[in-house]
Amino acid sequence: MDASTIDLCLSSFPWADFRSTKGAIKLHVGLDHSGLLPSFITVTDGKKTDIEVARTLKFPKGSIVACDRGYTDYQWYQQLTDNGVYFVTRLKSNAKYRITQRRQINRQQGLKSDQTIEFTGTQTRKRCAVPLRRVSYRDPLTGQHYIFLTNHFALSAKTIADIYQQRWQIELFFKWIKQNLKIKTFMGTSKNAVLTQIWITMCVYLVLAIIKFQSQLGNSMQQILRVLQLDLFEKRDLMALLRGDPPREPMVNPNQMLLI
Q1: Contact 19/40 with Cβ under 8 angstroms?
Q2: Which of 143, 159, 183, 231 could form a disulfide with 155 if both were Cys (CB 3.0 to 4.6 A apart)?
Q3: Which among 39, 34, 12 is positioned nearest to 23, based on CA atoms?
Q4: Mean pLDDT for the chain overall
Q5: What DSSP state is assigned to residue 125?
Q6: How far apart are CA 13 and CA 21, in angstroms?
């Protein structure tokens, strides 16, 4: 789960107030890991924080929500835990806690520690009273050090790190729609025009995903999009078009040129 800010010119979009000289709206998306398709989307003004939207969502019991530190809210962590929903996020560097349990780790996997912690801050302890899991991990490829926070104790520590790594897929989703579906350039300046274009963009993305799944040809979504753009006004069989089959010769009526 993540959000992406779409910048707008304040003089052209005066309703999209964000900063004194800048306009923006924010696209909040929950990406389902199974198929990497949006399971929910909402559009808010640019000032709406990520966690404000997250508090309004109801996740199915047993879900695992991967999110960055922009969603840090200890009371929300408690709420998710009470509802049987798991989360994997990154622990803030200034968090105050004490270690209550240490588990063995496989250092060859890049793991540094796997601990059970309890928050010790006065306000933090009131908002989140449940024990949580702290996993320290160093990426062997980049050398970057991460400290993850989760309420899931059944999965291995390496799986927790892998779950957070998959959060990058939503960043790729935002990048793809902005580069390929022209979501940064709008045809109209009213709020309704902008929202309409965004929702059309999401519909196009889902249609492309359906075509990719049903064709089973190995074409990327970008390749499918390019083919459709080039042949938009051609009346062709879709699967034949994606396979690259040559167009059929049109059938000519032999009496068409006779003056009868």
Answers
A1: no
A2: 159
A3: 12
A4: 91
A5: H
A6: 11
- Residue 183's nearest CA partner among 168, 191, 195, 170 is 195
Q: Show Cβ contacts of residue 86 under 8 Å, excluding neighbours closer than 6 positions.
A: 62, 63, 64, 65, 80, 150, 151, 152
Total residues found in the chain within this entry: 260
Bridge partners (DSSP) of residue 116 are 101, 133
Residue found by looking up tokens 């300046």 in the block: 189
Give the whole-number percent of the chain exceeding pLDDT 90: 68
φ/ψ of 110, rounded to 5, equals 90, 0
pTM of the model: 0.84
Contact 171, 29 (CB under 8 A): no
The span from the CA of 38 to the CA of 175, in Å, is: 14
Half-sphere CA count of 216, side-chain side, radius 13 A:
1
The tens digit of pLDDT for each residue in 112-138 reads 999 999 999 989 999 999 999 999 999
Question: Sign of dihedral through CA atoms 177, 182, 185, 188?
Answer: negative
d(CA 200, CA 187): 12
Structural contact between residues 8 and 16, judged by C-beta atoms closer than 8 angstroms? yes
